[in-house]
Amino acid sequence: MQYRLLGRSGIRVSALCLGASRFGITPLADGVDALVRRALDLGINFIDTANSYGNQPRYDRPGVPPWHERLSSEEYVGNALHALGVSRHDVVIATKVQEVVGEGPNDGGPNGGGLTRKHIMAQCERSLRRLRTDHVDVYYAHHPDPTTPLDQTLRAFDDLVQQGKVRYPALSNFPAWELTRALWLCERLRLNPPVAMEMPYNLFNRRIEADVVPACQAFDVGIVTYTSLAMGVLTGAYKPGEPAPPGSRASFGRLQYETEPRKQAAARLVALAAEWGRPTPQLALAWLLGRPGITSGIVGTETITQLEELVPAAELALSSEQLAQVEAAAATVA
Fold it and tell me: Taking a C-beta distance cutoff of 8 angstroms, is the pair 172, 140 a contact?
């Protein structure tokens, strides 16, 4: 496994990050511990979750317990690390705050004070209890909150750092201009600045290259990517002209990337991977991890077999000619 500095934090995280958003769903509850153990054995020391992941109706799918019978993603992570006897020093835990977690007027989201001091302080305490730890390593503001002044959010995060409950603040899904403003406010107010940005990025979605990547590089902010495999489409599992495989994310409504042109592009990548004797997702991840400014790519693997197939991508260096071929194969019109 390759380890990379997370921005200016000084800590090194694995180039692949274990995404825990669907713990309790894929894998089911009884498979979480084994997946976490295998990830750690393979050198992954970075785990990504959020206070809004897992036990919400939006994650329901056929064949799994309904949302009100599942634990939260944070609880699955905390329970797994505790059951496995993992030293807290050996793992970097990232979680998030902002999204809706209840029905009250201050229960999160863009209209519920998701980045107010009130919400952040309360949710951090709850996250710590669910994760069974006394501190979070990386704490993301999950999305911007247009109803809350940015300096209030940054002061709340800084207070959590001063209290020892958070090691490093971070941002997720923020535009480049707001990252820049956040860094300026932190310098002006002498607050601990965000060390990372978590953003969607993959061969089919390269929008952050225009402004977020240059801003992060200029200010030494690490970039952690989600939808790293385009919600599974870049694995080649979605075939042109065929419906989504039963049980896949696209089969229960997650259709963001599952379009016919993208399935055709993925099929071209499959052919290229076969020619080179590599699993298709390794090519997509190797391309991603080789991009400027990228620190770590989140992978939401459902099985140990899938995880073991992906990990070699962290050490796979593609030549400039191979990278060009991968980009050409993945070119799509929609």
Answer: yes
